[in-house]
Specification:
With 394 residues, the protein is mostly beta strands. It contains 3 helices and 22 strands. The strands form 4 sheets. A 16-stranded antiparallel β-barrel has the order 1-2-3-4-5-6-7-8-9-14-15-16-19-20-21-22. The protein has a two-stranded antiparallel sheet with strand order 10-11. Strand 20 and strand 21 form a beta hairpin.
């Protein structure tokens, strides 16, 4: 008995001594809240040949953003606000739960996965500006919604449900009838490592029409007939001039699809997307169809091989001291004569030089030749554009 009492005393003393260490270990097991500020500043200059008629040489700060990122264990979130040409608007606002390193669920207001262009933000496009087709189709615009992403091995899959249209700026009663939709992105990538990538993918999107609240003759508030507005300007942010445009009335819904491809070996990469869109309309009205394609040939002139970004299913941002050249071409056909809608036809060929000073500062220089014809939004014309940008990210 005495021996047992002695053992008990020793164990008690050991427990008292070990308590601070156990508490410290328990504290280490608790998730820690991490909060980081984020920001972005774009400084652009542009020269247009010929200029005039809506385009004027100049300089601008087309995008200034400030925000914050936070993480706590498997939870993370982001709030980002942007300021551009005297207008303040919300950008990414979401909360995310990561089940593990391969699966997450995100809810809020953000760009949902739809094609390879969704892998990069607006300022990180390797060709400096997004493809006109992508802009016209609103393929990577922000929407309120819920997204699930699975990223494992050769498969990258995403599924989203969205409340589309003006839900971020107008309450539902002012919309008359809320536009809702669903979209996905599916990518197969048998090779996806630094120096070697081969992947193909397909994205699908369906969304019901937009509406407005109207007052009927009896004074009752009703939803207007469905509609969509599609538009895109010249690929520059210093001057904003419309190039393509179509107002589609009596719409029921829109279907979009976009196959994508990405091939990379060492310091050479080729990527692109094809887009097809069909807007179904009420009986007696011809459906509106549009299509387009863009392709990029990318090469690292100074620096290491291209890397791969798992979470985006696309190429990673090149490292410090990298000089990259990007040749691009984009074709958009927004005309559909049978429906009587002439959105326009445009071609854009470009060459862009990107220099990555470090992970915070990037310099870009771009030349592009853009022409537009048969557009109700713009006369037939062509423009040569020389643009330069310094962008700061943190």
């Amino acid at each position: 008995m005495k021996k047992m009492n002695g053992i008990a005393k020793v164990m008690t003393v050991m427990a008292i001594v070990a308590m601070p260490a156990l508490q410290a270990m328990a504290a280490d097991d608790e998730p820690k809240l991490t909060v980081k500020p984020t920001g972005r500043v774009l400084m652009d200059g542009a020269v247009y040949l010929p200029d005039g008629d809506g385009l004027a040489d100049g300089v601008a700060l087309p995008d200034i953003r400030m925000g914050v990122k936070a993480s706590y264990g498997k939870w993370s979130g982001k709030i980002d606000a942007g300021y551009s040409f005297n207008k303040l608007s919300m950008k990414d606002v979401y909360i995310q739960y990561s089940f593990n390193s391969e699966n997450y669920l995100r809810a809020g207001y953000f760009v949902h996965q739809f094609g390879l262009n969704a892998a990069t933000s607006s300022s990180m496009k390797p060709q400096m500006e997004a493809a006109t087709t992508d802009t016209y189709f609103n393929a990577t615009g922000r929407n309120i919604g819920l997204e699930y992403v699975h990223d494992c091995g050769p498969a990258f899959l995403s599924f989203s449900g969205i409340v589309a249209g003006t839900s971020m700026t107008s309450p539902s009663n002012e919309q008359g009838k809320v536009s809702v939709g669903a979209l996905n992105r599916a990518v197969w990538r048998p090779c996806h490592a630094t120096g070697l990538v081969a992947q193909v993918g397909m994205s699908l999107w369906y969304q019901s029409a937009l509406h407005k609240a109207e007052t009927a003759e009896d004074g009752e508030t009703v939803a207007s007939k469905g509609y969509f507005n599609w538009s895109a300007g010249f690929p520059t942010r210093v001057s904003k001039e419309g190039m393509l445009g179509a107002d589609v009335t009596n719409a029921k819904g829109v279907f979009k699809l976009s196959p994508e491809w990405l091939l990379m070996k060492g310091r050479i990469a080729c990527e692109g997307q094809y887009y097809y869109m069909n807007v179904a309309r009420r009986t007696g009205f011809e459906s509106y169809r549009a299509q387009g394609v863009y392709g990029l040939l990318r090469g690292i002139l100074i620096g290491s091989d291209y890397g791969y970004s798992h979470g985006d299913a696309g190429l990673a941002t090149p490292g410090k001291g990298t000089l990259e050249m990007v040749l691009g071409y984009n074709y958009t056909d927004a005309n559909q004569g049978r429906s009587g809608i002439h959105g326009g036809i445009s071609n854009d060929a470009s060459m862009t030089l990107n220099y990555y000073f470090n992970k915070y500062v990037i310099g870009r220089l771009r030349y592009s030749y853009t022409d537009v014809r048969s557009s109700d939004a713009q006369r037939n014309r062509h423009v040569n554009t020389i643009q330069a940008r310094i962008q700061i990210l943190f």
